[in-house]
Records
---
Amino acid sequence: MDFSIGEDRQMLVDTLSRYLADKADWKAREAALESEAGFDKDMWAGMAELGILGALFGEEAGGFGGSPFDIGVVFGEVGRGLPTGPFLATLLAGKLLEAAGDSETLGNVIAGASIATFAHHPAVGADGSVAPQATASGAGDSWTLSGAKGVVDYLGSADIVVVTAETGNGLGAFLVETGAAGVSVRDYPLVDGGAAGELTLDNAPARLLTGDSAAIDAALASGVVATAWEAAAVMEVLRDQTLEYLRTRKQFGIPIGKFQALQHRMATVALEIEQARSAAINAAANFDKGAAQRDRFGAAAMYTVGKVGRLVAEEAIQMHGGIGMTWELPLSHYAKRLTMLGHVMGDEDEHLARFIELGAQETNRAA
Amino acid sequence: MNLDFTPEDEAFREEVRTFLKEKLPKRLSDKVRTGQHLTKADMEEWHAILNERGWLANHWPVEWGGTGWSVMQRFIFETETAIFHAPRIVPFGLSMLAPVLIKYGTEEQCRHYLPRILDGTDWWCQGYSEPGAGSDLASLKTQAVREGDHYIVNGQKTWTTLGQHADWIFCLVRTSSEGKRQEGISFLLIDMKSPGIEVRPIKLLDGDYEVNEVFFTDVKVPVTNLVGEENQGWTYAKYLLTYERTNIAGVGASMELLDRLKDVARTTMRGGKPLAEDPFYAARLAKLEIDLENMKTTNLRVLDAAGAGHAPVAESSMLKIRGTEIRQEINDLMRRAAGRYAQPFVAEALEEGFNGEPVGPEWANPVASQYFNNRKLSIFGGSNEVQREIITKAVLGL
């Protein structure tokens, strides 16, 4: 058994960590949040130049990594540095380009020449109605897509979108250019920084990437690993900042960390964060052990991230008191991000239900 | 034991409802219902409407313009106004300062300030917390030194809610450093237009501006602006905080929000069925509803005891803790119901006159920011940790 991330990954972590500390500091984050794109395009280009995005994909596809632990450590640094940008969008879209063997398109994404995103979940209307699954019609090299997708990460900045749609033969993944006819985009900011958009397709021209829905499941599973590692890192930042505050903030003449009421709560927070870290490791370690096992540990990780994330974000703010409520303190931004990480790949309840369902399937198979 | 409201109470409820149907402007209730920001003018408009009816200062003694309502009538009024999405009554002048003036101020102070609170001439804010004095309020350092007919005030207050609108601030200031810390504090009324006062806004985590820092540099305050006796301010402050905490329970508002949450759970689809039928979500909702039902009766029991002349010190701490926890749980369940649509946040949609299309479900835009903003509930008005200390000491005798 070996819990070290290994030398190569450590180098990757160091490079990314230094780069983000330099290019994505707090001032840069403020500017990125104010910008229409919601992220710093120069930072993104520089990161691509360093080859960081290549770590998310395998060598055959033009990357130099692509294992679940490679993905995990990259997203861990994203969590620690808290830059906004299409990290998850790149991973999800890129995994489907990789599955399709489209290394030319993926190469442009890895090089930062093209921004890609992934549109999977149907849009929801003002009255709560869920749009029908997007549909694809055509054959061979000629397809068109129609439908509406919701909360598509960084859609307004994307050149290409990988869109899931019903082919009549199951769910397939298609490549759509955002500038094409029949594509409309509504862009908006997100509560924790960054941007997303609603995508409407009306007979938009598309290229089939894969008709194999298992490839879509695998891409989503890699998104789960990424989110779990990012969340665990954000939790650790919040823990460290809160510990520092408990040690230095004095009330009633002593550091507030001397109050047992806070000590025990902080001990629980620390314990739960270790559990979340283990959940993230489990999700990565079981990724290549068959879809059923992969998804069961993925669901466990997302359940844990949702549950522990709420505890950590709320306690970090509460123990800081009023100052924890301020925009000026980075802590509040980490707390918001952590909370929203419980939404991006589905919430705690959804994944708990999924875990139960997958367990029942397992039992049935055994019987 | 009988928990029914009396026929008189029910008649009163009807009277309140009729008033709200006739007098509450739809423009205002729409803003409250959809979570849009209320401007100073909006809040003043609602105050004026209530004042015209004589209901603005409903808990004041009749001689000063109060209603003489029983605690039960006040509870009914609070509940009904919340259900009808009326703006909240801004508490600083009406619910915090006024009771202190009436109990500890001079006749002259009451005659001068109370009518101005009622007619909206003066907007008050609260100067309690300081950067070094939060939960440990008695460690406050803002100093008032007597020079002839004036105090000279130096120091800083923080978390001053809606201080940007205020004409006046009631402040706890240090007038003595001898003896126990609590014994050197005085309660001072300060004109915000005084030279030497500077207000700086604090941006909160949801991007909103509702609290401020207030700086005092050699601010001259007439000694006639002292409330009660010098160095007795801590007693008055505690009296005021008790009032603040009773109001903070917000049972009426939580009842209204729970109704809205149930609507959302019925109309939001998750995995092909309404969220209300999702066993995990339904369990969260049910536990919340049970807690609120229990809380309602706890609140009524406290009000009943208060009506019998019992000062609700420790009980108000209990109301504050559980009332704010319930409110935060409602915000949490709203956020969960929004699913992926908790993320989009169009800040302009919170301002009046926004014409854009909503993103996702029409109720979803403000829910995440409300969830974050309402983390304040368990921090302000004496953090819930401080409330637990009060219960530990005052009720449990530990």
Note: The longest strand of chain A covers residues 195-210.
---
Amino acid sequence: MPDASAFAAVAPMRVLIDHDLAPVMRAPDRKRMPLPLLPEIAAGDPAAVDAFLKRHQNMVFGLARRFCRSAEDAEDATQEIFVEAWKSAGRFDATAGSETTFLMTIARRRLIDRARRQGRRPPTALLEDAGSLAEQPGADRAELHEEVRLAKEALEQLRPEQRHVLDLALGQGRTHHEISAAIGIPLGTVKSHARRGLIRLREMLGVEDRNEGGTP
Amino acid sequence: MSEPDPRLEALAEAIVFAHEAEAALPAPGGGVLALERTAALAAAAFAGPVAVPERLQRRLAAAGLAFCAERARELAKDGAGRTAPRGSARGIPMFLLGVAAGIVLWFVLRADAELPIERQRDTLLATRNATRLQWKAGPSPLRGLVEGDVVWSHDSQHGFLRFRGLPPLDDDHRFQLWIVDGNRDGAPVDGGLFSVADAGADTIVPIRAALPIGSAKAFVVTVEPRGGVVVSKQEHVVAIAGL
């Protein structure tokens, strides 16, 4: 957990960034976003649970495959993520964010927890594929949820070096030391690209911090 | 151009590298959640969807059913806690009334036992306290075009399953009924083995609960080896009612 000294450490590094120039993406098209199923899941409706799985399982498994060392581990992680999402369904607040965002936030937290608990690292081979938004095997672009599709579009508008660092860190779970060594830039520059890229992405997507009560 | 907020930048860095050994997600508040949500969407965008293997689909479906059964138990307990405090003055007469109704119904059904099973089901259905639940198809491909219903009487601890569209199994397998009891923790109660001869005709099967059922919250039919199992792995759930 970063403490106050961590924030103080970056305070003197004030520099101008170009977030004012960041294009703002259009808001997610609500008509393309299906009605959330989590309220019905909170009531224990098996049809809603089944529909939720059909809607989200490939997206969650895609992320788990990136973070886990083996297919078996990714399967365990996927099940763990869904069970936690169902148990947290009562805390979902549609006014605070979408169902997809709620689920993917749980998924990333859970994958981080698992990786730390198991002391495992993602497969190193992925590092060689970094720097692109290449489709994964079995991927179906049409299957992307509206919010994820917009995130993908927004990532394509980031500076290439920012996108590259975020791909290695967020998409593959690489450390800043590994990223620095892999692409040959100083550690400070890796961190700078990461934080500015994320902030710019948040601005483009218009993601708000509204209603912490909707936290997974 | 505006100056960056150093606190926001520190948070963003902490969130991007939260997976590192020495790191952790910052505490909620002050913009953390928005950045965390952004990071999660970006991670999903980088990863993209990957087709889930069939065995994982089955695992997830079974986990979903287990969650729903557990949720039904929790909701039943909450409801019971609100409406019928244990040991209340009103609870004893209601209990005795339930016992009396069960005895009467048992005699009625016993007299009716020689009737064809369709008539037995109709008789039970006509009683005041019988519950009727429609089947919903389960996730297993062995479900066929299953439809039909469950009729269950708590008072007599007796009931019938009615199916149409459930394909017959090979000789090494049987359908097995499971009853999710809202008053009982642990695995569902075995409701008996049965087979189906013709998917195109109505099949009516009596329920044979292995234990008394306190509060039947759901009925689940799985495919199991010929002799049945004590606890189902729920690899092939073909029909669900009541959840």
Note: Chain A is about 55% helix and 0% strand.
